[in-house]
Amino acid sequence: MMMKKTLLATALVGMFASQGAVAADDSAELRKIIEQQQKVLQDLEKRLDETEKRVEKTADVVEESASESKSATTIGGYGELHYNNITDNKSGKDKKAIDFHRFVLFFGHEFTESTRFFSEVEIEHALSGDDKPGEVELEQAYIEHDFNEMFTGKAGLFLVPVGIINETHEPPTFYGVERNPVEKNILPATWWEAGAALNVKASPGLAFDGAITSGLKVDETYNIRGGRQKVAKADASDLAYTARVKYTGVTGLELAATAQYQSDLTQSKAGVDTASATLLTAHAIYSIQGFTVKALYAQWDIDGKEAEALGRDEQNGWYIEPSYRINESFGVFARYNEYDNNAGNSEDTKVEQTNLGINYWLHENVVFKADYEKVGGAKDADGFNLGVGYQF
């Protein structure tokens, strides 16, 4: 628009300059000059209007192109390499191994501001197949939709809303090379199922989750971790029902509790008594400046004669983990764990594990880890672990 006004002003100056060059009494010639100048101005205005339209159209095309180039599809991932040097003082079966434990890729797509897709594909232990130690797993694949600001639902394959590490387990987000043994052996993380879930944001800092999903299917040993079906042609004779409440209304504080019920952990296996099971777990996380403390308790109560005979009708565990983030690069931690997958047994089968270590963040999403490990109680082992992890 500024260019248009400048050109018009220049044209007007030229017009009046031309008028001044003509004799005052020569009115016919003057009118002719004025008409010529007016025609020139009209033609100039027309051209300027056409130019402005072309510029605006070009700007719209550029803006639309820029918007389209910003893809609604996202890619991310994480991974971790571990070195374990643990001496088993009871069995003599030492663990001295190096393992690319996990390689994970995320794929997500936002259909609209309210509807999105998220997935996670994982390779464990680098190689999978016959006689290979690893697995290729679909750990998440679900559609999520915001019905409004209060209600969000999802359907598909997703992580069970339980514990601390089950939903957030990327290496830079936790201390220690290996994930804590309580959530691994009792909950059991990482734990995913298929079904539908609803998140309710009741008020600022207070949320409820409910889910109906596929459930565990334990064998005759009633090993909880071994009961994960991983949604691979999973038996759905007996579904699982999960409810969680989480409070984050105070800065630096997170409190949460989860309950899950399954009518039969064996998925109605023939010749086996029905074994209904209830999981209860609660955790607290509190952070102030660089100091953080985490604590979690979890227990299974299984109602079944076979489970009781094995001493596995009760399985429980807890841990506490104080840590201190010295600066952006360094943090130190200590963690004490107790867990027992045979708590109903008359013998002392409780396992105690202590880890002390350090994290070094080369970048906020790249971490190097080292920790000392001491295992006691029903087991007797000690050693150290080294690791490197990343997320993007």
If you had to describe this structure to a student in words, what would you say it looks like?
The protein is of the alpha+beta class. The chain has 2 domains: 2-20 and 27-66, no CATH class; 161-391, Beta Barrel (Porin), CATH 2.40.160. It is 19% helix and 47% strand. The chain contains 4 helices and 16 strands. Strands 1-2-3-4-5-6-7-8-9-10-11-12-13-14-15-16 form a 16-stranded antiparallel β-barrel. Helix 1 (2-20) packs antiparallel against helix 2 (27-69). The longest helix has 43 residues, at 27-69. The radius of gyration is 34 Å and the shape is elongated. The two termini are 46 Å apart. Residues 1-24 have low confidence and may be disordered.
Short description:
The chain has 392 residues and is of the alpha+beta class. Helix content is 19%, strand content 47%.
